[in-house]
Design goal:
CATH class of the largest domain: Alpha Beta
Strand order of the largest sheet: 9-7-5-2-10-1-11-15-19-20
Number of strands: 20
Shape: globular
Distance between the termini: 26 Å
Radius of gyration: 21 Å
Largest sheet: 10 strands, mixed
Bound molecules: guanosine-5'-diphosphate, 6-O-phosphoryl inosine monophosphate, magnesium ion
Number of helices: 11
Strand content: 15-25%
Length: 431
Amino acid sequence: MSKVDVLLGLQWGDEGKGKIVDVLTPDYDVIARFQGGPNAGHTLEFNGIKHVLHIIPSGIFHKEKLNVIGNGVLIEPAIFNEEVEALRQKNVEPTENLYISKKAHLILPSHRLLDAANEQAKGNAKIGSTLKGIGPAYTDKIARTGIRVGDIMEFDFREKYQLLKFQHLQIAKMLKYDVESFRIGGLSLDEYEVRWMESLETLRKFKLINSEYFINNCLKEGKRVLAEGAQGSMLDIDFGSYPFVTSSSTITAGVCSGLGVAPSSIGRVMGITKAYCTRVGAGPFPTELFDATGHTLCELGHEFGATTGRARRCGWIDIPALRYACMLNGVTDLIVTKPDVMNDFDEVKMCVSYVINDKETEEIPFEFNEVEIRPKLVAFEGWKHSLGSAKNYDSLPPQLLAYLSAIELRTGVRIMAVSVSPDRKDVLFRS
Ligand code: GDP
Ligand code: IMO
Ligand code: MG
């Protein structure tokens, strides 16, 4: 009986999960997404090709490997259809190696409308949602009113769809939303609905399965399964900076409910962190830099959202948040990405604790959003060196190794690999 290994983000998303999953895929038989949906944007680069995945797991470019969209994921059929088409343009035929859980929930056009309307109604308190309908669709799942992928094969699907859409429009009316004024991908609700309905045909061509049986049978057969997280631990619905979070369980616990595997079936938990920190959307970010350094990180790191194109907020690495994420996830191995972005920095800083009302703490406070947090920073000498020539982990510049050791020391977790460029080939694994 094998176990499910997990790879997930330890910050506020965009840590480089897509790239690392792609790199690790040769070691696995099955790659499975367990939560999130089209709010994710996972970038892969190889042979000069750059590709962004949203709902489809990042193992898809390895034709001989199976990919699974688990029950915990949300699928927006029109976005899924676009993703499938984009892969076909690159000669990848995903119907061959992608299975989809019948229990995954659907995002309807009216979920997207409600997402946009809810955000607009929040005014200055906006979460900065990706507007893909995530919050409203998970709301329906929990309220037991959602529609699942398996339903698209049923004779009464249209009826279910119309009923749920009607409920959404009633809610919109009650809240006095001006439904006519909202656009989804530049289209009105009715126009988008046509595209959405047509896209169901694409979804119907995939193998729709009970993924919990599939994954557990794989484990029984000794197959190696990798669960790919979306978003990041600090965006988790329970432990993130609520309400500035996403609506799913982004941590290891989410693997159990999002794939149907027992906690005892979890193996290694690989957590990814950037060598600095970013956040897109609103909410607390104690180490955020508003100065030229923050700007440089954004520019050199190309920190623009893979899903929305929004500029990401940038700052120094945040150890209290990282330690919290390691604790919640039971991280066994760390992976650090993007130190190369800071190659020219004279010094690199690390937040080791928070000072709140003159008191120092290493914990994330309940009042994370309300209190003023002063990060206590420790400076490290910059490595001032390109990392392209490093052949292995130990040949990285000593200043960078010192910085990485400090991360290990303060999180209590060993670093297993460092990524030094967007390309698949540039990951230095530690022996
Ligand atoms: P994900 O959501 O966690 O998969 O991450 P994203 O794809 O949204 O954002 C990560 C960005 O950083 C992408 O543009 C990647 O191509 C890029 N990237 C990943 N690893 C590295 C790295 O080690 N160095 C640099 N410079 N870029 C990287
Ligand atoms: P990946 O998988 C970064 C953020 C949004 C917003 C909040 C809620 O690429 O790391 P939602 O659309 O989920 O209701 O938005 O969460 N967010 C992400 N930020 N990376 C992501 O995914 C994100 N998915 C959602 O910006 O602040
Ligand atoms: Mg991303």
